[in-house]
Amino acid sequence: MKELLNHENGYKFHRTAIIDEGSIIGKDTRVWHWVHISSGAKIGSGCSLGQGVYVGSKVKIGNGVKIQNNVSVYDNVYLEDNVFCGPSMVFTNVYNPRSSINRKEEYRDTIVREGASLGANCTIVCGVEIGKSAFVAAGAVVKENVAPYSLVAGVPAVHVGWMSEFGERLNFNREGLATCSQTNNTYSLKDGIVTKEYNEQQD
Description:
The protein has strands at residues 5-6, 12-13, 18-19, 24-25, 30-31, 36-37, 42-43, 48-49, 54-55, 60-61, 66-67, 72-73, 77-79, 84-85, 90-91, 110-112, 117-118, 123-124, 129-130, 135-136, 141-142, 150-153, 158-162, 177-179, 186-190, 193-196. With 203 residues, the protein is mostly beta strands. It is built from no helices and 26 strands.
């Protein structure tokens, strides 16, 4: 028997995975060992869900998302295209949980924008937005919104630099410009906001 089985809808899954009826999974997505996908979950194409991943029913995951082993994506978490979730990183959806009090009506939305990376063992406290191509360092605890292209680290997480879409540190000059060493794409920094610059040769 092959390690991953082919589903008629075009995705691949391991025989140990639990995929509830009513979930939607895109073409070429791979669902590995002991994954549980709840009814109502929406997962795009070309994703990879590692061993022991849980996906809640009120979760939407874009295309090309990689979720490493032992990550639980709880209700009200939304991952845009090409997000990376490192091993054993943590999402939450209740800000002040108590075992004896039902707070399902108080879930806070967590949004991770396109291309962002969440490092191994980091924790994302619910109700925040992680900006486009932002980078959360391993072990960080994020309690506030993270700006696009920002690199944050520590407990609690603080801004320590900027990252390109390729995942390289950006060093801005006095004019507020920086170039990714791997792609030669140029970025500008103005009033604490980083944007990617385009020229006629770029899409």
